[in-house]
Every structure is written in C-alpha cells, then in structure tokens.
Write a structure and sequence with these properties.
278 residues, elongated, seven-stranded mixed sheet, alpha/beta, two-stranded antiparallel ribbon, 39% helix, 9 strands, single chain
C-alpha cells in the first residue's frame, strides 16, 4: 500500500464514518505506510509479544501490529472511532479493544507499547507509561516534546521532563517524522522515540523529595540552584542555612539547566539527611 493509497483510504473511511478529526483531542491519523513499517521495525514485535496501543484511531497501526503480535490491546476514548475500530478489526481474533481514557484506565500486562501518542496528553501519558511494566515502547511525539525527552544538561530543551524520564528509562530519539505523514497534518513535525525501562541510575533516599526539588529547580531553569531551593526550603519551613553547606556550595552556584540528574539527586539526598538530623 503506497502512502497515497493509505491517504485516500483514510479520507474515504473518515467520510463514510462521518468523522471530523478533533483539534481539541489532537487527532492526526497516520497516512504513511513507510512510517507504519518503521514503527513495526523499531518495536521489533514478535509473534510471542503482547502489545498495547494507546489512541488506536482508525486502526491503521492496530492492524499492522495484529499481523505481527500474539495479542494487541488497543485503547480508544472517542466513541465514533471506537465503532469504526469494532468494525474494521473484527477480522482479527487477537485484538482486544478497550473503550476509555488511557489516563484513567489500568494498563494490561504487555511486552511492548507502540503508539502514536495523542499530543494533547503527551506528558501525563508518558509518566503513566513509565509507571507500567513493559520491555520496550516505540512512540510518536511532537518533535519538540521528543527533544525535551532526550535533551542533555545545558541545552535549551533540558528540563523537568528530561530528568523525570531519565530516572525511569533510557530514551532515544530514533528519527524525525514529517507532518505530511499524518492527516490532517499537525502544525509541527513529529519524531519516533524509543523508551526502555531501566533501574534508577542513582539512589534517591526519597523519590518524592527528589521530584519535588526537580520541580522547584525548573520553575526558574536559568537561575542559580540556590535561588529556587530557597523557595523550596521556605515552603517546607526548613532552615535556610542549609544553603550554606560546604558540600553543596559548588552545585548550588550552577544554573538549574546545567545540573545533571545525579547532581540534583545529590542535592536532594544531602538536604534530606541534614534536615532529618536537625
């Protein structure tokens, strides 16, 4: 199937089903068979794999996954699209459709997650995915979001999202996707990203404290760390003299954007140990 044929078939199906893509929900349907093939290739779906797709849309990716996988769970919250999926995928006995909001549903147990992520919920959905058990995820995001996921310290895209994902998974931007691969075309290009869960790269004494300090630091990413931590300590009603600890003097002079995740963890662990002992 050529890209043009897939494009025409998508338009025909949308018209027959009386469906207009929702801007509010960020609905963009894949019309590139090349992109489909790349998603399947990168995900390395085997006949023994159980796969989850989030935002199944018109079932284009779902069908391609079903031809490779042992079982496919496909989540969709749009009623009209769900009815299309029920009809289109009825020929597959290894597809289980799940109607509902992916942010509220409990994910089934799977080996792979392969999805064209609904752009409007990219951040919360990513962290929900990272809290699930899986071996590998191949996901399509807006390019800017993908660059934030995989950014390096000191770069403009590095921030709270980067650190949060780094703590839970290996993230790799595989390739850029032109907006013409979708209908209607989004305003920006997209990217294929691979996520692989990994053990935390360092020991956080308290994960909640670590992520809270990450949040405070990146409220003002271009200011020195001690500036943001002052507000953190004030909110927690802790001694501001903790900012004068010799062990933190060097890192607190750095701008938040330049701190590595391990340096942020060092700050969190040090502060936690100090105010536990006071």
């Amino acid at each position: 199937m050529t890209k043009n044929n897939l494009f025409l078939k998508t338009l025909k199906l949308l018209k027959e089903s009386n469906i207009k893509p929702s801007k509010k929900r960020g609905q963009h349907f894949i019309v590139s068979s090349d992109l489909l093939e790349k998603e399947i290739k990168y995900s390395e779906v085997q006949s023994t794999d159980t796969v989850l797709e989030i935002g199944a849309g018109l079932g284009t990716l779902t069908s391609a996954l079903a031809e490779k996988a042992k079982k496919v769970y496909a989540i969709e919250k749009d009623q009209k699209l769900f009815r299309v999926l029920e009809d289109k995928l009825s020929c597959f006995n290894n597809v289980e459709l799940i109607y509902g909001d992916a942010l509220k549903l409990e994910f089934p147990s799977v080996q792979k997650i392969v999805s064209n992520i609904p752009y409007s919920i990219s951040s919360p959905l990513t962290f929900k995915i990272l809290s699930a058990k899986f071996q590998k995820a191949v996901l399509i995001y807006q390019l800017e979001f993908a660059e934030r996921l995989t950014a390096k310290p000191g770069t403009k895209n590095y921030g709270r999202l980067t650190v949060g994902v780094y703590y839970k998974a290996e993230a790799k931007l595989l390739e850029r996707v032109p907006r013409t691969a979708f209908y209607p075309p989004p305003r920006v290009d997209s990217a294929i990203v691979m996520l692989k869960p990994k053990p935390p790269p360092f020991r956080a004494l308290d994960e909640a404290v670590f992520f809270e300090i990450v949040r405070f630091l990146f409220m003002h990413p271009n200011k020195k760390a001690k500036h943001s931590l002052k507000y953190y300590l004030e909110e927690k009603k802790k001694d501001l003299r903790l900012l004068n600890l010799n062990s933190l003097s060097e890192v607190l002079e750095k701008r938040a954007r330049n701190l590595t995740p391990s340096e942020i963890n060092m700050i969190a662990n040090t502060l936690l140990m100090e105010y536990r002992n006071r």
